Amino acid sequence: MDGDIDVPHMPADLPVAVIGAGPVGLAAAAHLLARGERVIVLEAAADVAAHMRDFGHVRLFSPWRYNVDAAARALLDRRGWTAPAPERLPTGQELVDLYLRPLAATPEIAAVLRLGRRVVAISRAGFDKVKSKGRDAAPFVLRIARADCLGEEEVRARAVIDCTGTWSQPNPLGANGLPAVGEATLSARIRYGIPDVLGRERPRYAGKRTLVVGGGHSAANALLDLAQLAREAPGTRLDWAVRASQDIDKAFGGGEADQLAARGALGSGLRRLVDSNVVALHPGLRIASLRADAGKIVVTGEDGTVVDGIDEIVCATGQRPDLAMTRELRLRLDPWLECAEALGPLIDPNLHSCGTVRPHGARELAHPEPGFYVAGVKSYGRAPTFLLATGYEQVRSIAAALTGDWVAAQEVHLDLPQTGVCSATPLAATTAAGAGAGACCGTAPPTEAQCCDPVAKEEAVAAGASCCGATSDKVRVSVKAGAARTAAPSVAASPTTAAWGDTAVAAPPQPASPAGATCRGKTCG
After folding, report:
1. Is 30 helix (H, G, I), strand (E, B) or coil?
2. CB 222, CB 197: distance < 8 Å
3. Which of 24, 333, 433, 455 is the right S-S partner for 391, CB 3.0 to 4.6 Å?
4. What's the pLDDT band for 253 if we cut at 50, 70, 90?
5. Which of 117, 213, 201 is closest to 170 using CA atoms?
6. Rounded to whole angstroms, how far apart are CA atoms 187 and 474?
7. Distances 380 to 164, 360, 394 between C-alpha atoms, Å
8. Sheet bearing 140-146, strands edge to edge
9. Which of 130-139, 185-194, 425-434, 457-466 is predicted with the least confidence, judged by mean pLDDT?
């Protein structure tokens, strides 16, 4: 089939190796097994879902109906599994106990799951990164460190799906992407991620002054828990630092406009903390250094701003992918997000202030190394706003591609809830091109026909403007930084329908532009 993704031709008895036994990794195994594929799942920890167990105390903002994969459920249903109420919100630990552990215990998954196996490197049998001739037919070789102290071993596979996540690779406090000066020295007083403030880590924060750094959902969770602790434990104080002032409004989210009510409530609760002065806000604090002084932490920003008297720091600045094990593979990565290059335009947080990402699958996730994919949150590289449902759709598409079912690989089986957030200002060219009430890209609320009309869209794109989600296939513009971003040559404009649209077969769809006043939060194109 013209335009099909290359799949290596090698011995059929080799398995597909799935790295990571979290929710997306186990879903990948379920989809492959449903298609009759041989599978091996390699997990570094002694139990499944190690990352999720680390934030097991956190209640997820997506209900159960978004958190259970269809192929995984089919395996569970055969064993008489009782599904939780679809609209109930699980904690991370409940997701593990009520879904992932039962899934791992099904005979089908249990037979292919290998715990205590950390993949440290991946290559091709007999081929380093430089050699080309015959490379695609060579099996993958996965070098594994065993947790049982029996040394190293190797596994050969016909394809590899990396679902290892990014939770164990937190971004540092430094605004420049490097650890702040003094961060390593004071690491014992810095907690990365979401601490269990009201549970096992309560003594660490009760009666203390804690600085939370970050503008996302992890920071919001930490701040709301600390506020509750402050009501219960006298002397507990909380500070919140964000690197850019506009990050504050972004953290507040879409409120009642968010289609995930719990996600909207998270931002609304955070707004109330700020409005009531429960939290001391430090907007625009770009941390440069930390130092200890009289038993306290002194934080200094790049502009010389000083925040002192801090006892503990919670770093909730996101995560980044660990790419070390793929050094001998040929990857094509987005230069700054470190995701697959074709996926970058679809998820770039510099552009997608609305938090809306089009469905994508095997085609966008493919690399020059045929048969290798990254799925789950790691597929987003450094970009935020990943939902489990996205990962499930990714591995469904990948499993179809690996078995030659190109039609299924290119179908869209995903309907994500929108955030209700559109904080970006439309491009000047966009506003000028359509300022009238009837314009496709004007400031007045467009009708569906105006917003999604393909002719009007093509005209606007040809003129270099943004039209309700379509952009030129040459340049993507960051409205915050004012910098032009050149899209990958393989990413071409493609027509889509209203709502989520139909992904084009010939090429990945174009990214959605910041909507702002342009589309009033409507998903078009």
Report:
1. helix
2. yes
3. 24
4. low
5. 213
6. 44
7. 12, 11, 11
8. 117-124, 140-146, 152-157
9. 425-434
Distance CA 393, CA 363 (A): 12
Rg (CA), the chain: 24
Using pLDDT thresholds of 50, 70 and 90, give the confidence band for residue 433: very low
Dig out the tokens for 89 from the structure: 């919100």
The C-alpha angle with vertex 66 and arms to 357 and 397, in degrees rounded to 5, equals 60
- Strands (DSSP E) contained in 214-327 are 237-242, 279-283, 287-293, 296-301, 306-310, 312-315
Which is more confidently placed, 226 or 438? 226
Distance CA 375, CA 389 (A): 12
Q: Of 85, 89, 84, 83, give the one whose Cα is nearest residue 59.
A: 89
Helices (H), 434-499: 448-452, 454-462
Both structure tokens of 267? 């931002």
The pLDDT of residue 120 is above 80: yes
Amino acid (one-letter) located at 261 = A
Q: How confident is the model at residue 313 (pLDDT cuts 50, 70, 90)?
A: very high
Determine if residue 218 is left, alpha or beta; phi over 0 gives left, psi from -120 to 50 gives alpha, anything else beta: alpha
pLDDT on residue 274: 83
DSSP for 330-390, written as a single string: ---B-TTT-SBTTTHHHH-TTT-TT-------HHHH--SSTTEEE-GGGGGTT-----HHH
Give which of 114, 110, 123, 106 is closest to 148, Cα–Cα: 114
Mean pLDDT of 417-440: 37
512: enclosing H helix or E strand = none
> Quick one: pLDDT at residue 518?
33
DSSP state at residue 140: E
CB-based contact 416:387 (threshold 8 Å): yes
CB 210 within 8 A of CB 237: yes
- pLDDT band of residue 269 (cuts 50, 70, 90) is confident
- Start-end of H helices in 101-256: 101-105, 107-110, 202-205, 217-232, 246-252
For CA atoms 488, 388, 349, 373, the dihedral sign is: negative
Question: Which residue matches tokens 């290559």?
Answer: 123
Task: Decide: residue 277, CB within 10 A, 0-12 exposed, 13-18 middle, 19+ buried.
Answer: exposed
